[in-house]
Task: inverse folding
């Protein structure tokens, strides 16, 4: 099995605390051979964490043209994603990039075309989390009958001292809705995996805390193409945390608790299922390796990432314009069909 030589770009929270632990578990598949970050000091600190003496590059473009990497991992501010993906494609270097794919749908116009020229994988780990994958399987098998309605309640306990809140580019976000889109694309990826495509959104949003940089509260009323309706309610800055998705069918209800990796079926039948607790990053990088070796890119495709972002943007636009917004219209309006 040939190892993939990775160049890491961005030495922040995602690279240090999410990607590196996953890559260490996959050391038979990957080796980190290069690092580039906003400052040499940050790159050096990350290289020490890696511990295998990767080469430090002062320039991203120099890294891309060095011949010392087989693929590049982007974990940079969201607004930089489109331009940095484009430069990797032009250098003919496969890229795996953290989500969201772009700060808004308009800024993502080139992404689909670029992904046809080279391998672009958007790192949406929620598509790989076992509890959502098992929930999708159970719903498709009719365990709750015909899905009718859903409710997702998500309260996020982010205070002023939270490490994500303290990130400079998140304090003055260039991406729509700040944390609402940064975290929301995760949830929309999971929702779509379990219940299918979203047709339209009616939303309300508010900003309650200045330190969170943008809207921190949103309620999206959502209608899916299947006819299922429901609500997604999210609140950043809550004093307590909660994250639960309930889906009611005509025979039973399934409750999905991500943090506990638990599924509960209640109603006419009762069942409790515990699945492997995983944040999805190991599975994500394993899938990226398979795609690099010729497998079709399904879970990390640019189109899937754009659909996730379009749902959030539709909800925020609805809140602003006080009207129902079709998700397909946003994608078509940006020529992203």
Result:
């Amino acid at each position: 099995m040939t190892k993939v030589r990775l160049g890491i770009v961005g030495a922040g929270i995602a690279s240090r605390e999410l990607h590196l632990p996953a890559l260490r578990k996959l050391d038979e598949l990957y080796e980190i051979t290069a690092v580039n970050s906003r400052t040499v000091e940050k790159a050096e600190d990350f290289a020490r964490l890696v511990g295998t003496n990767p080469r430090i590059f002062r320039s991203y473009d120099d890294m891309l043209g060095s011949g010392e990497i087989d693929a590049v991992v982007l974990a940079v501010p969201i607004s930089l994603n489109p331009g940095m993906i484009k430069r990797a494609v032009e250098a003919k270097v496969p890229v795996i990039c953290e989500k969201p794919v772009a700060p808004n749908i308009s800024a993502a116009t080139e992404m689909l075309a670029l992904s046809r020229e080279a391998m672009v994988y958007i790192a949406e780990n929620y598509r790989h989390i076992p509890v959502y994958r098992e929930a999708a399987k159970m719903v498709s098998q009719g365990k709750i009958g015909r899905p009718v309605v859903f409710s997702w309640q998500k309260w996020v306990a982010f205070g002023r001292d939270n490490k994500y809140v303290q990130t400079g580019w998140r304090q003055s976000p260039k991406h729509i809705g700040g944390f609402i889109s940064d975290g929301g694309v995760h949830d929309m990826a999971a929702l779509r995996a379990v219940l299918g495509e979203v047709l339209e959104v009616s939303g309300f949003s508010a900003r309650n805390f200045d330190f969170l940089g943008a809207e921190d509260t949103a309620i999206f009323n959502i209608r899916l193409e299947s006819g299922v309706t429901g609500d997604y309610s999210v609140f950043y800055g809550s004093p307590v945390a909660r994250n639960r998705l309930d889906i009611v069918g005509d025979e039973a209800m399934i409750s999905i608790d991500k943090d506990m990796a638990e599924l509960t079926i209640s109603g006419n039948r009762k069942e409790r299922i515990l699945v492997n607790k995983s944040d999805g990053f190991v599975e994500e990088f394993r899938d990226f390796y398979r795609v690099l070796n010729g497998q079709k890119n399904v879970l990390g495709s640019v189109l899937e990432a754009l659909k996730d972002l379009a749902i959030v943007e539709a909800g925020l636009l609805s809140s602003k314009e006080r009207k129902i917004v079709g998700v397909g219209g946003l994608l078509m309006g940006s020529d992203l069909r």
